[in-house]
Amino acid sequence: MPVESGSSASSRQAKQKRKSHSLSIRRTNSTEQERTGLQREMLEGQDSKLPLSLRSNLLDLFGQIEREFENLYIENIELRREIETLNDRLTAEGQTIDGGDLTKGALKAKASHSTSQLSQKLKTTYKASTSKIVSSFKATTSRAVCQLVKEYVGHRDGIWDLSVTRTQPVVLGTASADHSAMLWSIETGKCLLKYLGHAGSVNSIKFHPTEQMALTASGDQTAHIWRYTVQLPTPQPVADISQTPCDDDIDFSDKDEADGDGDGPSECPSIRVSSTTLRSHQGVVIAADWLVGGKQVVTASWDRAANLYDVETSELVHSLTGHDQELTHCCTHPTQRLVVTSSRDTTFRLWDFRDPSIHSVNVFQGHTDTVTSAVFTVGDNVVSGSDDRTVKVWDLKNMRSPIATIRTDSAVNRISVSVNQRIIALPHDNRQVRLFDMSGVRLARLPRSNRQGHRRMVCCSAWCEDNPSCNLFSCGFDRQAIGWNINIPALLQEK
To answer: pTM above 0.70?
Structure first.
Protein backbone atom coordinates (compact mmCIF):
# COMPACT_ATOMS: atom_id res chain seq x y z
CA MET A 1 0.00 0.00 0.00
CA PRO A 2 1.59 3.28 -1.04
CA VAL A 3 2.42 5.85 1.67
CA GLU A 4 1.71 9.56 1.12
CA SER A 5 4.44 12.04 1.63
CA GLY A 6 4.12 14.82 4.22
CA SER A 7 3.74 17.51 1.56
CA SER A 8 0.92 15.69 -0.24
CA ALA A 9 -0.90 15.10 3.07
CA SER A 10 -0.68 18.74 4.01
CA SER A 11 -1.89 19.84 0.58
CA ARG A 12 -4.85 17.48 0.82
CA GLN A 13 -5.75 18.91 4.24
CA ALA A 14 -5.56 22.42 2.86
CA LYS A 15 -7.85 21.50 -0.05
CA GLN A 16 -10.38 19.93 2.31
CA LYS A 17 -10.27 22.99 4.54
CA ARG A 18 -10.84 25.36 1.59
CA LYS A 19 -13.66 23.12 0.35
CA SER A 20 -15.38 23.05 3.73
CA HIS A 21 -14.88 26.82 4.05
CA SER A 22 -16.45 27.40 0.61
CA LEU A 23 -19.38 25.14 1.52
CA SER A 24 -19.93 27.10 4.75
CA ILE A 25 -19.85 30.38 2.82
CA ARG A 26 -22.39 29.06 0.32
CA ARG A 27 -24.53 27.79 3.15
CA THR A 28 -24.26 31.11 4.98
CA ASN A 29 -25.00 33.10 1.85
CA SER A 30 -28.02 31.00 1.07
CA THR A 31 -29.29 31.37 4.60
CA GLU A 32 -28.79 35.18 4.51
CA GLN A 33 -30.52 35.37 1.14
CA GLU A 34 -33.50 33.44 2.48
CA ARG A 35 -33.58 35.66 5.56
CA THR A 36 -33.31 38.83 3.45
CA GLY A 37 -36.11 37.64 1.17
CA LEU A 38 -38.39 36.94 4.11
CA GLN A 39 -37.59 40.31 5.72
CA ARG A 40 -38.28 42.18 2.50
CA GLU A 41 -41.61 40.39 2.13
CA MET A 42 -42.42 41.46 5.70
CA LEU A 43 -41.42 45.05 4.90
CA GLU A 44 -43.68 45.13 1.87
CA GLY A 45 -46.56 43.94 4.03
CA GLN A 46 -45.97 46.61 6.75
CA ASP A 47 -47.45 50.09 6.71
CA SER A 48 -44.64 52.68 6.70
CA LYS A 49 -44.08 56.09 5.19
CA LEU A 50 -40.43 55.37 4.42
CA PRO A 51 -39.54 54.46 0.81
CA LEU A 52 -38.96 50.77 0.20
CA SER A 53 -35.38 51.35 -0.96
CA LEU A 54 -34.52 53.24 2.23
CA ARG A 55 -36.12 50.56 4.37
CA SER A 56 -34.21 47.89 2.48
CA ASN A 57 -30.90 49.74 3.07
CA LEU A 58 -31.69 50.08 6.75
CA LEU A 59 -32.48 46.38 6.91
CA ASP A 60 -29.15 45.49 5.30
CA LEU A 61 -27.31 47.71 7.76
CA PHE A 62 -29.08 46.21 10.74
CA GLY A 63 -28.32 42.74 9.35
CA GLN A 64 -24.62 43.57 9.21
CA ILE A 65 -24.73 44.90 12.78
CA GLU A 66 -26.48 41.71 13.89
CA ARG A 67 -23.80 39.54 12.26
CA GLU A 68 -21.03 41.54 13.93
CA PHE A 69 -22.66 41.13 17.33
CA GLU A 70 -23.14 37.40 16.61
CA ASN A 71 -19.43 36.99 15.84
CA LEU A 72 -18.47 38.90 18.99
CA TYR A 73 -20.81 36.75 21.03
CA ILE A 74 -19.26 33.54 19.66
CA GLU A 75 -15.75 34.84 20.31
CA ASN A 76 -16.73 35.78 23.83
CA ILE A 77 -18.02 32.26 24.50
CA GLU A 78 -14.82 30.72 23.16
CA LEU A 79 -12.69 33.06 25.27
CA ARG A 80 -14.65 32.14 28.38
CA ARG A 81 -14.08 28.43 27.66
CA GLU A 82 -10.37 29.01 27.16
CA ILE A 83 -10.15 30.94 30.44
CA GLU A 84 -11.98 28.20 32.32
CA THR A 85 -9.66 25.55 30.85
CA LEU A 86 -6.65 27.66 31.76
CA ASN A 87 -7.87 28.13 35.32
CA ASP A 88 -8.47 24.40 35.69
CA ARG A 89 -4.96 23.58 34.47
CA LEU A 90 -3.42 26.19 36.76
CA THR A 91 -5.32 24.80 39.71
CA ALA A 92 -4.31 21.22 38.87
CA GLU A 93 -0.63 21.87 38.12
CA GLY A 94 -0.03 24.66 40.64
CA GLN A 95 2.29 26.43 38.18
CA THR A 96 2.22 28.62 35.14
CA ILE A 97 1.80 27.26 31.61
CA ASP A 98 4.83 26.85 29.42
CA GLY A 99 5.10 28.83 26.24
CA GLY A 100 3.88 25.91 24.14
CA ASP A 101 0.30 27.14 23.90
CA LEU A 102 0.65 30.69 22.66
CA THR A 103 -3.07 31.39 22.49
CA LYS A 104 -3.67 30.39 26.10
CA GLY A 105 -0.59 32.27 27.21
CA ALA A 106 -1.94 35.43 25.58
CA LEU A 107 -5.26 34.83 27.25
CA LYS A 108 -3.58 34.47 30.61
CA ALA A 109 -1.61 37.68 30.07
CA LYS A 110 -4.83 39.48 29.16
CA ALA A 111 -6.59 38.10 32.23
CA SER A 112 -3.71 39.11 34.51
CA HIS A 113 -3.72 42.60 32.97
CA SER A 114 -7.46 42.92 33.65
CA THR A 115 -6.90 41.73 37.21
CA SER A 116 -4.16 44.30 37.77
CA GLN A 117 -6.40 47.06 36.38
CA LEU A 118 -9.20 46.04 38.75
CA SER A 119 -6.78 45.97 41.66
CA GLN A 120 -5.48 49.43 40.76
CA LYS A 121 -9.03 50.77 40.50
CA LEU A 122 -9.89 49.39 43.92
CA LYS A 123 -6.76 50.95 45.39
CA THR A 124 -7.60 54.33 43.83
CA THR A 125 -11.19 54.21 45.10
CA TYR A 126 -10.03 53.24 48.57
CA LYS A 127 -7.45 56.01 48.60
CA ALA A 128 -9.98 58.60 47.42
CA SER A 129 -12.54 57.60 50.03
CA THR A 130 -9.86 57.62 52.73
CA SER A 131 -8.70 61.08 51.66
CA LYS A 132 -12.28 62.30 51.75
CA ILE A 133 -12.71 61.01 55.30
CA VAL A 134 -9.45 62.65 56.40
CA SER A 135 -10.39 65.94 54.73
CA SER A 136 -13.76 65.90 56.50
CA PHE A 137 -11.94 65.63 59.82
CA LYS A 138 -9.73 68.55 58.84
CA ALA A 139 -12.76 70.63 57.85
CA THR A 140 -14.27 70.32 61.32
CA THR A 141 -11.24 72.00 62.82
CA SER A 142 -10.39 74.64 60.18
CA ARG A 143 -13.59 75.41 58.31
CA ALA A 144 -14.59 79.01 57.75
CA VAL A 145 -17.64 80.03 59.76
CA CYS A 146 -20.09 82.55 58.30
CA GLN A 147 -22.87 83.81 60.52
CA LEU A 148 -25.73 86.09 59.53
CA VAL A 149 -25.85 88.82 62.16
CA LYS A 150 -28.36 91.44 61.04
CA GLU A 151 -30.71 92.29 58.18
CA TYR A 152 -31.31 95.91 57.20
CA VAL A 153 -34.75 96.17 55.62
CA GLY A 154 -36.51 99.37 54.63
CA HIS A 155 -35.73 100.33 51.05
CA ARG A 156 -38.57 100.05 48.55
CA ASP A 157 -36.38 99.02 45.62
CA GLY A 158 -33.13 97.21 44.96
CA ILE A 159 -29.98 98.34 46.77
CA TRP A 160 -27.10 99.10 44.40
CA ASP A 161 -24.29 99.97 46.78
CA LEU A 162 -23.29 100.12 50.43
CA SER A 163 -20.44 101.48 52.46
CA VAL A 164 -19.28 101.81 56.08
CA THR A 165 -18.15 105.08 57.66
CA ARG A 166 -14.47 105.53 58.42
CA THR A 167 -15.11 107.78 61.42
CA GLN A 168 -17.06 107.48 64.64
CA PRO A 169 -19.89 106.73 64.99
CA VAL A 170 -19.55 103.75 62.67
CA VAL A 171 -22.72 103.37 60.61
CA LEU A 172 -23.76 101.57 57.45
CA GLY A 173 -24.85 103.49 54.36
CA THR A 174 -26.94 102.09 51.51
CA ALA A 175 -27.80 103.51 48.07
CA SER A 176 -31.01 102.35 46.45
CA ALA A 177 -32.96 102.56 43.22
CA ASP A 178 -35.85 104.03 45.23
CA HIS A 179 -34.08 107.46 44.92
CA SER A 180 -32.88 107.43 48.53
CA ALA A 181 -29.79 106.71 50.59
CA MET A 182 -30.06 105.49 54.19
CA LEU A 183 -27.77 105.35 57.20
CA TRP A 184 -28.23 102.39 59.52
CA SER A 185 -27.20 101.38 63.02
CA ILE A 186 -25.06 98.29 62.53
CA GLU A 187 -25.94 96.78 65.91
CA THR A 188 -29.70 97.39 65.99
CA GLY A 189 -30.53 97.42 62.27
CA LYS A 190 -32.59 100.63 62.60
CA CYS A 191 -32.57 103.43 60.07
CA LEU A 192 -30.87 106.53 61.52
CA LEU A 193 -31.10 108.97 58.60
CA LYS A 194 -32.53 109.13 55.10
CA TYR A 195 -31.20 111.27 52.26
CA LEU A 196 -33.86 112.27 49.71
CA GLY A 197 -32.04 114.88 47.64
CA HIS A 198 -31.70 112.93 44.39
CA ALA A 199 -34.26 112.82 41.60
CA GLY A 200 -33.10 109.45 40.29
CA SER A 201 -31.73 106.12 41.39
CA VAL A 202 -28.90 106.43 43.92
CA ASN A 203 -26.16 104.22 42.49
CA SER A 204 -23.27 104.73 44.88
CA ILE A 205 -22.46 105.94 48.40
CA LYS A 206 -19.03 106.66 49.91
CA PHE A 207 -18.08 108.37 53.19
CA HIS A 208 -15.47 111.08 53.79
CA PRO A 209 -12.26 109.71 55.35
CA THR A 210 -12.27 112.10 58.32
CA GLU A 211 -15.54 114.08 58.42
CA GLN A 212 -19.21 113.20 58.67
CA MET A 213 -19.94 113.72 54.99
CA ALA A 214 -21.35 111.35 52.39
CA LEU A 215 -20.90 111.30 48.61
CA THR A 216 -23.69 109.83 46.50
CA ALA A 217 -23.94 109.32 42.73
CA SER A 218 -27.28 109.20 40.96
CA GLY A 219 -29.09 108.52 37.74
CA ASP A 220 -30.13 112.19 37.70
CA GLN A 221 -26.65 112.90 36.20
CA THR A 222 -25.33 114.50 39.39
CA ALA A 223 -23.27 113.61 42.44
CA HIS A 224 -24.18 115.07 45.85
CA ILE A 225 -22.11 115.75 48.93
CA TRP A 226 -24.18 116.04 52.11
CA ARG A 227 -23.40 116.28 55.81
CA TYR A 228 -25.04 114.09 58.39
CA THR A 229 -25.30 113.88 62.16
CA VAL A 230 -26.54 110.71 63.76
CA GLN A 231 -26.81 109.33 67.26
CA LEU A 232 -26.58 105.61 67.76
CA PRO A 233 -29.41 103.96 69.71
CA THR A 234 -28.73 101.80 72.72
CA PRO A 235 -28.04 98.29 71.49
CA GLN A 236 -30.50 95.64 72.62
CA PRO A 237 -29.61 92.01 73.38
CA VAL A 238 -29.77 89.91 70.27
CA ALA A 239 -30.84 86.28 70.23
CA ASP A 240 -27.96 83.91 69.64
CA ILE A 241 -27.86 82.65 66.07
CA SER A 242 -26.23 79.27 65.64
CA GLN A 243 -23.08 79.47 63.60
CA THR A 244 -23.42 78.19 60.07
CA PRO A 245 -20.38 76.59 58.43
CA CYS A 246 -19.91 77.92 54.93
CA ASP A 247 -20.62 75.63 51.97
CA ASP A 248 -23.06 73.51 53.98
CA ASP A 249 -26.09 75.65 53.28
CA ILE A 250 -29.18 74.15 51.69
CA ASP A 251 -30.75 76.02 48.81
CA PHE A 252 -34.47 75.75 49.40
CA SER A 253 -37.29 77.27 47.38
CA ASP A 254 -36.78 80.44 45.40
CA LYS A 255 -39.43 82.36 47.28
CA ASP A 256 -39.15 86.11 47.29
CA GLU A 257 -40.06 86.77 50.90
CA ALA A 258 -38.56 90.26 50.92
CA ASP A 259 -40.43 91.55 47.90
CA GLY A 260 -43.26 93.03 49.88
CA ASP A 261 -42.96 96.65 50.87
CA GLY A 262 -43.54 95.76 54.49
CA ASP A 263 -43.85 98.44 57.09
CA GLY A 264 -40.63 100.10 56.00
CA PRO A 265 -38.18 101.70 58.43
CA SER A 266 -39.43 103.50 61.48
CA GLU A 267 -39.66 107.27 61.26
CA CYS A 268 -36.19 108.75 61.10
CA PRO A 269 -34.77 112.18 60.23
CA SER A 270 -34.33 112.98 56.56
CA ILE A 271 -32.18 115.36 54.51
CA ARG A 272 -33.49 116.75 51.24
CA VAL A 273 -30.84 119.32 50.26
CA SER A 274 -27.17 118.64 49.56
CA SER A 275 -24.36 120.87 50.66
CA THR A 276 -22.60 120.45 47.28
CA THR A 277 -23.94 119.37 43.91
CA LEU A 278 -21.51 118.25 41.22
CA ARG A 279 -22.80 118.73 37.67
CA SER A 280 -21.11 118.25 34.30
CA HIS A 281 -21.94 114.72 33.22
CA GLN A 282 -24.24 114.06 30.29
CA GLY A 283 -25.37 110.65 31.49
CA VAL A 284 -26.07 108.55 34.55
CA VAL A 285 -23.44 108.92 37.27
CA ILE A 286 -22.88 105.32 38.24
CA ALA A 287 -20.21 105.70 40.95
CA ALA A 288 -18.18 108.24 42.92
CA ASP A 289 -15.36 108.16 45.46
CA TRP A 290 -13.15 110.43 47.58
CA LEU A 291 -9.48 110.90 46.79
CA VAL A 292 -7.03 110.51 49.65
CA GLY A 293 -7.35 113.53 51.94
CA GLY A 294 -10.98 114.16 51.02
CA LYS A 295 -10.42 117.41 49.14
CA GLN A 296 -11.27 115.99 45.73
CA VAL A 297 -13.76 113.45 44.43
CA VAL A 298 -13.96 111.41 41.24
CA THR A 299 -17.16 110.40 39.47
CA ALA A 300 -17.81 107.78 36.77
CA SER A 301 -20.63 108.12 34.26
CA TRP A 302 -22.38 106.43 31.39
CA ASP A 303 -21.19 109.31 29.20
CA ARG A 304 -17.88 107.36 28.98
CA ALA A 305 -15.97 109.88 31.11
CA ALA A 306 -14.77 110.18 34.68
CA ASN A 307 -14.57 113.63 36.25
CA LEU A 308 -12.30 114.92 38.98
CA TYR A 309 -13.83 117.71 41.11
CA ASP A 310 -12.62 120.08 43.78
CA VAL A 311 -14.89 119.65 46.81
CA GLU A 312 -14.60 123.20 48.16
CA THR A 313 -15.29 125.00 44.87
CA SER A 314 -17.35 122.29 43.09
CA GLU A 315 -15.28 122.98 39.98
CA LEU A 316 -14.28 120.38 37.41
CA VAL A 317 -10.52 119.80 37.63
CA HIS A 318 -10.01 117.03 35.05
CA SER A 319 -12.20 115.11 32.66
CA LEU A 320 -10.81 111.61 32.25
CA THR A 321 -11.72 110.34 28.81
CA GLY A 322 -10.58 107.33 26.81
CA HIS A 323 -13.02 104.54 27.53
CA ASP A 324 -14.95 103.35 24.48
CA GLN A 325 -18.16 102.51 26.33
CA GLU A 326 -20.07 103.38 29.50
CA LEU A 327 -18.21 103.38 32.80
CA THR A 328 -19.38 100.99 35.49
CA HIS A 329 -17.33 101.88 38.57
CA CYS A 330 -14.52 103.99 39.99
CA CYS A 331 -12.30 103.53 43.02
CA THR A 332 -9.51 105.49 44.68
CA HIS A 333 -6.35 104.28 46.41
CA PRO A 334 -6.51 104.58 50.22
CA THR A 335 -3.09 106.24 50.59
CA GLN A 336 -2.05 107.53 47.13
CA ARG A 337 -3.56 109.79 44.50
CA LEU A 338 -4.50 106.94 42.19
CA VAL A 339 -7.86 106.29 40.54
CA VAL A 340 -9.08 103.20 38.73
CA THR A 341 -12.11 103.25 36.42
CA SER A 342 -13.85 100.23 34.88
CA SER A 343 -16.00 100.10 31.78
CA ARG A 344 -18.20 98.03 29.55
CA ASP A 345 -15.41 98.11 26.95
CA THR A 346 -13.82 95.11 28.81
CA THR A 347 -10.96 97.23 30.20
CA PHE A 348 -10.15 99.24 33.30
CA ARG A 349 -7.79 102.17 33.49
CA LEU A 350 -5.38 103.41 36.14
CA TRP A 351 -5.09 107.19 36.45
CA ASP A 352 -2.09 108.60 38.30
CA PHE A 353 -2.42 112.08 39.89
CA ARG A 354 0.63 111.90 42.13
CA ASP A 355 2.46 114.40 39.94
CA PRO A 356 0.39 117.64 39.92
CA SER A 357 1.80 118.75 36.57
CA ILE A 358 0.81 115.63 34.62
CA HIS A 359 -1.51 112.67 35.03
CA SER A 360 -0.73 109.39 33.31
CA VAL A 361 -3.05 106.56 32.38
CA ASN A 362 -2.49 102.82 32.01
CA VAL A 363 -4.95 100.42 30.37
CA PHE A 364 -5.51 96.93 31.73
CA GLN A 365 -6.80 94.39 29.23
CA GLY A 366 -7.60 90.84 30.21
CA HIS A 367 -11.36 90.45 30.51
CA THR A 368 -13.69 89.46 27.70
CA ASP A 369 -16.83 91.18 28.97
CA THR A 370 -17.90 94.20 31.00
CA VAL A 371 -15.58 95.00 33.90
CA THR A 372 -18.09 95.62 36.67
CA SER A 373 -15.59 96.89 39.25
CA ALA A 374 -11.91 97.31 40.01
CA VAL A 375 -10.63 98.08 43.50
CA PHE A 376 -7.28 98.74 45.15
CA THR A 377 -5.76 96.59 47.85
CA VAL A 378 -3.01 97.33 50.32
CA GLY A 379 0.21 97.60 48.35
CA ASP A 380 0.46 97.63 44.57
CA ASN A 381 -2.40 95.32 43.64
CA VAL A 382 -5.72 95.84 41.89
CA VAL A 383 -8.55 93.31 41.84
CA SER A 384 -11.03 93.42 38.95
CA GLY A 385 -14.34 91.60 38.51
CA SER A 386 -16.24 91.08 35.29
CA ASP A 387 -19.38 89.76 33.65
CA ASP A 388 -17.14 87.16 32.02
CA ARG A 389 -17.35 85.29 35.36
CA THR A 390 -13.75 85.88 36.32
CA VAL A 391 -11.91 87.92 38.93
CA LYS A 392 -8.29 88.87 38.29
CA VAL A 393 -5.58 90.11 40.65
CA TRP A 394 -3.10 92.50 39.04
CA ASP A 395 0.24 93.94 40.01
CA LEU A 396 0.48 97.62 39.14
CA LYS A 397 4.07 97.10 38.13
CA ASN A 398 3.14 94.41 35.59
CA MET A 399 0.03 95.28 33.61
CA ARG A 400 0.31 92.67 30.89
CA SER A 401 -0.99 89.64 32.73
CA PRO A 402 -2.74 89.03 36.07
CA ILE A 403 -0.93 87.30 38.90
CA ALA A 404 -4.05 85.30 39.82
CA THR A 405 -7.34 84.45 38.10
CA ILE A 406 -10.50 83.28 39.85
CA ARG A 407 -13.08 81.54 37.67
CA THR A 408 -16.69 81.41 38.84
CA ASP A 409 -20.03 80.21 37.53
CA SER A 410 -21.81 83.57 37.52
CA ALA A 411 -21.22 87.21 36.67
CA VAL A 412 -19.37 89.17 39.36
CA ASN A 413 -20.62 92.53 40.61
CA ARG A 414 -18.97 95.14 42.86
CA ILE A 415 -16.28 93.35 44.79
CA SER A 416 -14.48 94.39 47.97
CA VAL A 417 -11.19 93.39 49.59
CA SER A 418 -10.52 93.11 53.31
CA VAL A 419 -7.50 95.21 54.22
CA ASN A 420 -6.58 93.22 57.33
CA GLN A 421 -7.31 89.67 56.15
CA ARG A 422 -6.68 90.21 52.40
CA ILE A 423 -9.87 88.37 51.49
CA ILE A 424 -11.90 89.14 48.36
CA ALA A 425 -15.69 89.10 48.65
CA LEU A 426 -17.44 88.35 45.35
CA PRO A 427 -21.16 89.20 44.99
CA HIS A 428 -22.78 87.28 42.14
CA ASP A 429 -25.79 87.49 39.87
CA ASN A 430 -26.83 84.03 41.09
CA ARG A 431 -27.45 85.38 44.62
CA GLN A 432 -24.24 83.92 46.03
CA VAL A 433 -21.39 85.65 47.88
CA ARG A 434 -18.07 83.82 47.73
CA LEU A 435 -14.81 84.51 49.55
CA PHE A 436 -11.33 83.99 48.06
CA ASP A 437 -7.82 84.84 49.13
CA MET A 438 -5.48 86.94 47.01
CA SER A 439 -3.91 83.88 45.40
CA GLY A 440 -7.28 82.71 44.07
CA VAL A 441 -8.00 79.95 46.60
CA ARG A 442 -11.65 79.65 47.58
CA LEU A 443 -12.21 80.07 51.31
CA ALA A 444 -15.97 80.07 51.82
CA ARG A 445 -19.44 80.70 50.46
CA LEU A 446 -21.99 82.61 52.48
CA PRO A 447 -25.08 80.57 53.36
CA ARG A 448 -28.23 81.15 51.36
CA SER A 449 -31.61 79.48 51.80
CA ASN A 450 -35.25 80.45 52.09
CA ARG A 451 -34.56 81.40 55.69
CA GLN A 452 -31.42 83.50 55.39
CA GLY A 453 -29.25 85.09 52.74
CA HIS A 454 -30.10 86.98 49.58
CA ARG A 455 -33.02 85.97 47.41
CA ARG A 456 -32.05 87.99 44.34
CA MET A 457 -28.93 89.27 42.63
CA VAL A 458 -26.25 90.48 45.06
CA CYS A 459 -25.01 93.85 43.83
CA CYS A 460 -22.23 94.84 46.21
CA SER A 461 -20.15 93.84 49.21
CA ALA A 462 -18.20 95.91 51.73
CA TRP A 463 -15.87 95.02 54.59
CA CYS A 464 -15.90 96.66 58.01
CA GLU A 465 -12.48 96.16 59.56
CA ASP A 466 -13.22 97.74 62.95
CA ASN A 467 -16.32 95.74 63.89
CA PRO A 468 -15.45 92.23 65.10
CA SER A 469 -19.07 91.10 65.41
CA CYS A 470 -20.19 92.21 61.93
CA ASN A 471 -17.29 92.54 59.51
CA LEU A 472 -18.86 92.02 56.07
CA PHE A 473 -21.94 93.54 54.47
CA SER A 474 -23.77 92.69 51.25
CA CYS A 475 -26.78 94.13 49.45
CA GLY A 476 -28.92 93.13 46.53
CA PHE A 477 -32.11 93.39 44.53
CA ASP A 478 -34.12 91.77 47.32
CA ARG A 479 -34.21 95.27 48.86
CA GLN A 480 -32.17 94.35 51.90
CA ALA A 481 -28.64 94.64 53.20
CA ILE A 482 -27.17 91.89 55.35
CA GLY A 483 -24.44 92.01 57.96
CA TRP A 484 -22.23 88.94 58.35
CA ASN A 485 -19.68 87.72 60.84
CA ILE A 486 -16.86 86.03 58.92
CA ASN A 487 -14.36 83.91 60.84
CA ILE A 488 -11.60 82.56 58.62
CA PRO A 489 -9.09 80.46 60.59
CA ALA A 490 -5.47 81.36 59.99
CA LEU A 491 -4.72 77.79 58.95
CA LEU A 492 -7.31 77.98 56.18
CA GLN A 493 -5.96 81.32 54.92
CA GLU A 494 -2.43 79.92 54.73
CA LYS A 495 -3.66 77.14 52.43
So the answer is: no
